[in-house]
Automatic annotation (TrEMBL):
Single GO MF annotation: transaminase activity
Record flagged with keyword Transferase: yes
Superkingdom assignment: Bacteria
Family recorded in the similarity comment: Belongs to the group II decarboxylase family.
Keyword vocabulary terms for this entry: Aminotransferase, Antibiotic biosynthesis, Decarboxylase, Lyase, Pyridoxal phosphate, Transferase
Pfam families, alphabetized: Pyridoxal_deC
The protein, known as: Aspartate aminotransferase family protein
GO biological processes: amino acid metabolic process; antibiotic biosynthetic process; carboxylic acid metabolic process
Cofactor: pyridoxal 5'-phosphate
Length: 448
């Protein structure tokens, strides 16, 4: 075991050390990759050391440098050193994050890291914190708490009786909501037709006057879905005004990456009023730069959170009492995610988190300026770490050229009916030199 884990760490470190110099992505032939992993199901056992070397060889041509300094696609960070090492330990320790009986250490780490997260993100100290797989799971869990609460208020026990025959629940959400909200609504039995869409302004933040109009047009139990950090523009809904407009509706905030703006004094005003919501979804594996998979769901009412999600596992502990962890996430047995989150927050501290968020925003502005100076059109106000870039009709062809070139990686998106290159600066390793080199490569390819 000792030699095997040391070798795994060495292989992982080799990969990390190569990230700044290797092409960000290579055109990997899926047939060749599958052949590397492939062949018939092995009949006989193999020595673990051979398995490890075989895995490293097979995977190498298909590894993307998402953890490197010039990956700007989707919204992707690269795990911090202490967080990466902590996750290696979590795998080595093989702790189950289900409850404090299975891992008192995992429970304590999540307890402390959860309190730190709430403080950094400007959320009430009394809120519950569940360590989930990511934004999708956080949205689903937060909306399950919402479903419990608004139906309980209407005299309906949805956990016992389901949705058949229940009072209709209104789901009021921005037309610019993330697609994971719709999947959560499908899974929770509301269906996507339950959504009463609200118009968004030019940057993608919710139009509060239209929110008032939509809410006034109906009645009954209501959930309002808001967003901090539009995936195209970085725009954040006006949470304070939306809270006032929403009355006693349940207010859920999808802040997968945008919630981190609250941790940086220079961007915190974008999240003014964030503490007034009822539930919040946030990612660790995006802007906090912890390993996959890692997200957080917070709920202002821990009793509601547990009522919607609790596992009721008293029979497993024999103690008639359940630890909070497994009662706050959709998984029962799971990886002890709190170790890596604790390590990232311990490594950065409050100042380091603020500096990371601020630096990414600054680099996004630098990127936008360099491209605009080179003739590109910037499609959004760069308020956070997201930049939309257009080169007119050539934009899609250019996206492919940039991806093939390998200097940096970015994806394409459609915003307000137009195609754009989308840049997200979310990783802790990106420097000004990386931005300048990437912008130069994009402009060179655009000029060809
Ligand atoms: C990324 C993202 C999600 C989904 O998060 P996952 O961690 O990929 O599940 C949800 N909402 C927003 C706004 C996002 O940016």
């Amino acid at each position: 075991m000792r030699a095997l884990l040391a070798r795994a760490a060495e292989l992982a470190a080799d990969h990390r050390e190569s990230l700044a110099d290797r092409p960000v992505a290579r055109a990997a032939d899926p047939h060749v990759l599958r052949a590397g992993f492939g062949g018939p199901l092995p009949e006989a056992p193999s020595p673990p050391s051979e398995v490890l070397e075989e895995l490293a060889r097979a995977a190498e041509p298909g590894l993307v440098a998402t953890a490197g300094p010039r990956f700007f696609g989707f919204v992707v960070g690269g795990a911090l050193p202490a967080a990466t090492a902590a996750d290696v330990l979590a795998a080595g320790w093989d702790q189950n994050g289900f409850n404090a009986v299975l891992s008192p250490a995992a429970a304590a780490a999540e307890d402390v890291a959860g309190a730190w997260l709430k403080e950094l993100l400007g959320l009430p100290a009394t809120a519950s914190a569940g360590f989930v797989t990511g934004g999708q799971s956080a949205n689903t869990t937060g909306l399950a708490a919402a479903r419990h609460h608004v139906l309980a208020e209407a005299g309906w026990d949805v956990e016992r009786d389901g949705l058949t025959g229940a009072p209709r629940v209104r789901v009021v959400a921005s037309e610019e909501r993330h697609a994971t909200i719709d999947r959560s609504l499908r899974l929770l039995g509301f269906g996507t037709r339950a959504v009463e869409p609200v118009a968004a302004g030019p940057q993608g933040a919710i139009d509060v006057a239209d929110l008032e109009r939509v809410l006034a047009a109906g009645s009954g139990p209501a959930i309002v879905c808001l967003q901090a950090g539009n995936v195209n523009t970085g725009a954040c809904d006006d949470l304070r005004a939306a809270r006032e407009a929403a009355g006693d509706a349940w207010l859920h905030v999808d802040g997968a990456f945008g919630l981190w703006a609250a941790a940086n004094p220079a961007t915190a005003a974008l999240l003014d009023g964030v503490e007034l919501a009822d539930s919040w979804a946030c990612d660790g594996h995006k802007w906090l730069n912890v390993p996959y998979d890692s997200g957080f769901v917070f709920c202002a009412r821990p009793d509601v959170h547990a009522a919607a999600i609790a596992y009721r596992a008293a029979y497993l502990t024999g103690a008639g009492e359940v630890s909070g962890m497994g009662d706050l996430t959709l998984e029962s047995s799971r990886r002890a995610r709190g170790f890596a989150v604790w390590a990232a927050l311990r490594e950065l501290g409050r100042d380091g988190v603020a500096e990371l968020v601020d630096r990414c925003c600054r680099l996004a502005r630098r990127f936008a300026k360099a491209l605009a100076d080179g003739g590109a059109e910037i499609g959004n106000d760069v308020v956070l770490n997201q930049v939309l870039v257009s080169f007119g009709d050539d934009t899609d062809a250019l996206t492919r050229k940039v991806q093939d070139d390998g200097t940096c990686w970015l994806g394409g998106t459609t915003w307000r009916g137009r195609r754009y290159l989308r840049i997200s600066v979310s990783g802790w390793t990106t420097t000004e030199a990386d931005v300048d080199r990437s912008a130069a490569a994009i402009l060179r390819l655009a000029g060809q």
